[in-house]
Amino acid sequence: MRMQFTQPLTRARPVRRYKRFLADVVCDDGTETTVHCPNTGAMLGCDVPDSVVWLSCSQNAKRKYPLTWEIVETCTGVSVGINTNRSNRLVREAIEAGVVVELAGYPSIQAEVTLGSGRSRIDFFLSGGQALKDCYLEVKNVTAAVQDGIAIFPDAVSARGTKHLRELIGLVESGFRAVLCFCVQRDDVAEVRPAEAIDPTYASTLREAVAAGVELIAYRAKVGPEGIALYRRVRAAPGATPVR
Prior knowledge:
Layout: E1 3-4, E2 10-18, E3 22-27, E4 32-36, E5 52-57, E6 67-73, E7 79-81, H1 87-96, E8 108-115, E9 120-127, E10 135-142, E11 150-153, H2 159-173, E12 177-184, E13 191-194, H3 200-212, E14 215-224, E15 227-236
Parallel strand pairs: 10-12, 11-13, 12-14, 13-15
Antiparallel strand pairs: 1-15, 2-3, 2-5, 3-4, 5-6, 6-7, 8-9, 9-10, 14-15
């Protein structure tokens, strides 16, 4: 199964990114325009002027910026999906297609499940599996790669990401299965690690979560203007420093 773009993407080159969710680009026909950039991170290695980017176009007439930045072709020739709004769909499709072997055997998958008092939500709740604990699944989109096939997360300080880890720990303590899945929207990664130098709190909390029983998995994707699909498991490592 592969997430297909419903219409051909527009090719462009980025000029600058600003206000977190906006970017100016120049399309191949010379048109200069502002597009929506659906990525809250720093986009390390992906926000490079004069690289090639691919844009989708919304059919919603009420949108101020109808074009959305979906993909960038990095200076090393790797296509990276930068739209974090795609990651949950990619993971769900991969689970339903049997690609994510760690999550096989659950007939029911619910999205955006509310926890406790309703102040927080987890991406997915998987249930109904024979001899399988009900499972809460949180998805994180990964775009930043450094060297030697190693990707990092997060690429900016993420208090929200740390909060989600704490919630997963609580779910394990309550008797549930809890899984964190790194959705790697690029095809040159062999391992995902916490970005210790960027967010040491997240890194240490991730190690604490793994020690508490939270499962850590990662899958990488084939990315192109026609579509994106997760297809291969890669190593997910909590880092070298042990939990004390």
